Amino acid sequence: MDKTAVLDLSEALNRADGDQDFFVTLATLFLQESSKDAAAVRAALERQDRTGLAAAAHKLKGSVMEMCAPRLFECTKRLEELGQQGKFAEASPVCADVETRLAEVHVALRDVIAGGFPS
Amino acid sequence: MSSHAMPHIGQVPDSSPGIETPAATILLIEDEPVTRTSMAARLTRLGYRVLEAENGCVGLEVARRERPDLLIVDWMMPEMDGLTFCDAIRRDPQLKSSQILLMTAHDAPAQIAEGLVRGADDFLSKSSSKQEIIARVLAGLRTSRLVRKLETTGEELKSSMLLLEKKQAETEADLQTAAAFVQSLLPLPGSPVHGITLAWEYQPSLTLGGDLFDVMTIDADHLGLYILDASGHGVAAALRSASLMTFLRAENMLQLLGSYDPATVLFEANRRFPLSADGDYFTLWVGQLHLPTGSLSYASAGHPGALLSSAEDPSRWLTTASFPLGFDPSARFTCDRVSLKPADRLFLLSDGIYEVPSPSGELWGRDRFRETIDAGKQTSLSATIASCFAAARGWQQAQHFPDDAAVVGIELTDCREDTSNG
Amino acid sequence: MQIKERIVPQGIILDVVGDLTYAHRAVFKAAVEKAKQAGCRHLIVNLEQVRFVDSAGLGLLVLVSQNFKLHQAQISMLKPQSYVREIMSLANIPKMIPIYEREEDALMARAA
């Protein structure tokens, strides 16, 4: 997997057994859930909640894996680790990074949902 | 790649939905909705019936209700995590043999070890390829089927055992009833007729014995007595004995033969109770005592005999060599006579009382039995009989007799004086 | 109980060791059946090593004797110990199954 790609669409579609409609359903679900998860991540970081931060980042990481978004996945994973270690100072920029990457993925997914799959 | 092409499904699931075999049920427990929806869809596409739960608590409820064939559980979950869920399943008597696939992003050996310790059967990485998912699920379901088959077999065995125990209890109860019935046929100790004292002791080796005896009034002047011994052991022998006992009833003999003449009784019994196909037969000793004179006529069919014990003389065996019943259908039995005096005792016995081995294998034997009888002349009839049982038990150093053991004693009180006075 | 089988020109000798009782009837039956299948005309049961015969054992001997007679075959007994002989005598067995003290005599009996 190209770790620099925003979205590995072919791999994501493969995970959905090539079912485009189902992928759209998953992607729509992801848009909702990941926003909530990102908010939870931010809130946990602000109240310096180790467990909360790790759990929220873990949850987000799981759904990101389904979408096959490698860059977002890597920084979410890093954030989970920092949460586990209670390194809030280091976590802060990573959290910002996660939010940026997530926004990119959202854009890419909305494109696919609205415009269909690139052939 | 062509996004429209249906990907190749590497393996057909073994529980594909169909009319004949219902699809295997998989319970998927995962808190994260995207992962859960995705995995559920993949499993559904593979042909399984998929149940979903968003946390371990809900998962436990569903598992108890649905008894799924396989549980796929996320490791990290709020409320109840995967490991705690495994613990709960293994503690639940109904669910403890469930197959659990622990779904995880972890693959560190220490964590996998912990998962195994806590009760997971296998692991499934969240990033697994479809082939890997199929392989893990198939393996889990295969184990699940085997475990369930074992459990069913175990339960069937258990219920068969219970049924068998119930049957055995019924049989034992039937035997007790039969034994009580046979006991009721045996004569009452005491004084069956004026001038005669009767005492006996009987130790069947099993619930239902095959050695039976009777002492009965034939008519005003005659007392009939016999002891029979069935070869072989067990219920069949006991039943044959009860049947011969019924045949030997006084009314039956009088009706059939007009008397209780011992030789005639044996002749008739010999014709009617042939050697069985298994080589089973009876030995029988029959006597008839003429009460006014004390004259005893007796005949034996292969029976080791009766022992006559008189006050003055040493006791002696009353027996003749003869075939047991059924050995020779045309056999004739000779009748012998002996005169009994007041205070004389007559003992009928089964060989089970003296064919008892000592721990070294030596039999107690007829001679020691006779010596015990002679030694008991000064004690009461029942005490003498009791001393025989005590001596035999002492000899074999065991309470339980290997074969039916019976000793029946009658003692003449001075009957002639009574009759002459009356 | 153990049974060893010896085949001699005049028949089959069963050397019985142990007690011929109810508990061992199956072993004895099997040995006899084997001899019968082999077409044995004279079965000699050697009781020298038999300490005790119970009523079931006696019944078996008689059954075998009757069965052999039906097939114009014969059974004999060899060297019973005194206690066994006493039991046999009480049941008049010697009138049905001949008893021999010497193996040669038993073997001669059939030939005669």
Which keywords apply here?
heterotrimer; A: 5 helices; C: alpha/beta; Transcription Regulator spoIIAA; 5-stranded mixed sheet; globular
Count of beta strands of chain C: 5
Q: Can you give the helix content of chain C as a percent range?
A: 40-55%
What best-fitting shape of chain A do the alpha-carbon axes yield? elongated
- The proportion of strand residues of chain C reads 25-35%
List the secondary-structure elements of chain C in sequence, H or E: EEHEHEHEH
CATH hierarchy: architecture of chain C = 2-Layer Sandwich
Structural class of chain A: mainly alpha
CATH fold type of chain A: Four Helix Bundle (Hemerythrin (Met), subunit A)
Mean pLDDT of chain A: 90
What CATH calls the topology of chain C is Transcription Regulator spoIIAA
Number of strands of chain A: 0
Total number of distinct structural domains of chain A = 1
Beta-strand percentage range of chain A? under 5%
The greatest interface here is:
B-C, 29 and 21 residues
Query: Can you name the CATH architecture of chain A?
Result: Up-down Bundle
**For this entry, what is the oligomeric state of its chains?**
heterotrimer
Order of helices and strands of chain A: HHHHH
**Number of helix segments of chain C?**
4
Q: What is the overall number of helices of chain A?
A: 5
Largest sheet of chain C: 5 strands, mixed
Radius of gyration of chain C: 12 Å
Question: What features would you describe in this structure?
Answer:
- The complex is a heterotrimer of chains A (119), B (422) and C (112).
- With 119 residues, chain A is mainly α.
- Chain A has 5 helices and no strands.
- Chain A has one domain (9-113): Four Helix Bundle (Hemerythrin (Met), subunit A) (Up-down Bundle), CATH 1.20.120.
- Chain A has helices at 9-15, 20-46, 50-67, 70-85, 88-115.
- The model of chain A has no long low-confidence stretch (mean pLDDT 90).
- Chain B has 2 domains: 25-156, 3-Layer(aba) Sandwich (Rossmann fold); 186-421, 4-Layer Sandwich (Phosphatase 2c, domain 1).
- Chain B is built from 11 helices and 15 strands.
- In chain B, helix 9 runs antiparallel to helix 10.
- Chain B is rod-shaped, with a radius of gyration of 40 Å.
- Mean pLDDT of chain B is 87; it is low at 1-20 and 415-422.
- The longest helix of chain C is centred in the middle third of the chain and has 16 residues, at 55-70.
- Chain C has 112 residues and is of the alpha/beta class.
- Chain C has one domain: 2-Layer Sandwich (Transcription Regulator spoIIAA), CATH 3.30.750.24.
- Chain C contains 4 helices and 5 strands, in the order ββαβαβαβα.
- Helix content of chain C is 42%, strand content 26%.
- Classes of the chains: A mainly alpha (119), B alpha/beta (422), C alpha/beta (112).
- Chains in contact: A-B, B-C.
